[in-house]
Amino acid sequence: MPEKKIKSQKVHPPPKKGVWLLAVMFAATLLLPVALSALALKLFAPAPTVAPEAIEQAAISTMQIAVPIYVDGTVNAILPGAVAGTLAASIPNATPIPPTPTQPSQPCDLAGFVSDATIPDGTQLSASEAFTKVWLIRNLGSCTWTEDYALTFSSGEIMGGKSPITLGRELAPGDIMEISANLVAPSTSGVYSGHWMLQNSTGDSFGLSPTNQPLSFHISVGSQGSIALDMVEQACFATWSSAIGMVECPNPDDMIGGGVSPVTNTLAEFGIEFILPAIEVIPNEGADGFINGEYPLLQIQNGDTFHAIVGCADNQRDCNLVFELQIDTGGRVPDVLGRWFEKSDGVFQKMVIDLSPLAGESIRLVLSSSSLNGSSVDNKGLWITPIVFRAVK
Predict the structure, then answer these.
(1) Residue 211 and residue 264 share a domain
(2) Which of the four, 232, 276, 330, 347, has the lowest number of CB atoms within 10 Å?
(3) Are residues 272 and 184 in the same domain?
(4) Cα-flanking dihedrals φ and ψ of residue 54, to 5°?
(5) Among residues 296, 289, 235, 291, which one has the least CA distance to residue 263?
């Protein structure tokens, strides 16, 4: 068998590394412009138009979010479902709930004057006469007064009383009680006053709303005191007027032009009865409603003091009044000696004003009562035992 001849093939050696590098660089040079053009088309091509509804639906179906709850203007809570990863929702343009206005805190200990149950200001007593002074007081604070609360002497004349005097029982907020002190009038004739404060179980003192005034009383011993002006007794000798015009006295029920009526006793707010002389007043109807009583000339002496209790009449739920003691100035803006605001809240204000700085002057005192709510309905006020008390030398 003839032997086959194998044709020899020429074997080429592998290219050198420098040749490969040149080839790659050449290819990159050719392809770079193409790649850059494609990228430019990608970046600067207009965005496809997609309906907002589609975007929202996609968000709802694919997103799980934590929605903040706004409380008092701050983000301070997360919905429980969102924390667990189970709440799917779109993000709203929600407005935070505005913070709730902060209400003024009620003091723990605060008292409100209701009445002088005994010994109203101006009471005349004999020298060394024993008497019991009783105040009717309401708890206006937020704390219950315990049996350890006490009445303590503050200033003036202690008149043989002991201090402190424990209350001896609890008084819940809003309730009233009689607080009393057994005293003895001084042995020397004159005009005297006593001022007492309340004290809590830790020894802190407090007094009557609104400015922590003391519980007080004013008496005369012997013949050294008198009533210089009884403003209830002399009520219809005063000149009464309102924003509508002149008001007759008595005129108890005029809800349009204003009313005034002196009474020997009266039923005040919360059904509290005063067996004391008083003047019932009604401002005229309207935003400028008032009722003023101008008294005849009175020459003031050193030591004269004005005394009164002000409040709202019974069943006057919308009562909102300001009481003022004024001096008539002959047509000019009257001088205001004292101002007290009253609502139907079951407490009253007791006023004592020293008139001594006016000693030697002849003045016309004015009892002024003005409406703060623009209505005469349910807005009857009370001046209880308004007097000018005089210390006789």
Answers:
(1) no
(2) 330
(3) no
(4) -70, -40
(5) 235
Domain check: are 124 and 256 in the same one? no
Q: Give the helix, strand, coil percentages of the chain, each rounded to 5.
A: 15, 40, 45
- Give the pLDDT means over successive 10-residue stretches in the chain (393 positions): 44 46 45 47 47 44 32 30 30 42 73 94 93 96 96 97 96 96 94 96 92 92 84 97 95 90 93 92 92 96 94 93 93 87 92 94 96 88 95 69
Q: Burial of 170 by CB count in 10 Å (0-12 exposed, 13-18 middle, 19+ buried)?
A: middle
Q: For the chain, what is the domain count?
A: 2
Same domain, 217 and 272: no
For residue range 204-241, list pLDDT tens digits in order.
999 998 788 999 999 999 876 789 999 999 999 999 99
Q: Do 250 and 342 fall within a single domain? A: yes
Range of the domain at 257: 228-391
Q: Identify the three-state secondary structure at position 305.
A: strand
Structure tokens at 236: 């219809």
Q: What is the spatial distance between Cα 31 and Cα 116, in angstroms, rounded to a whole number?
A: 108
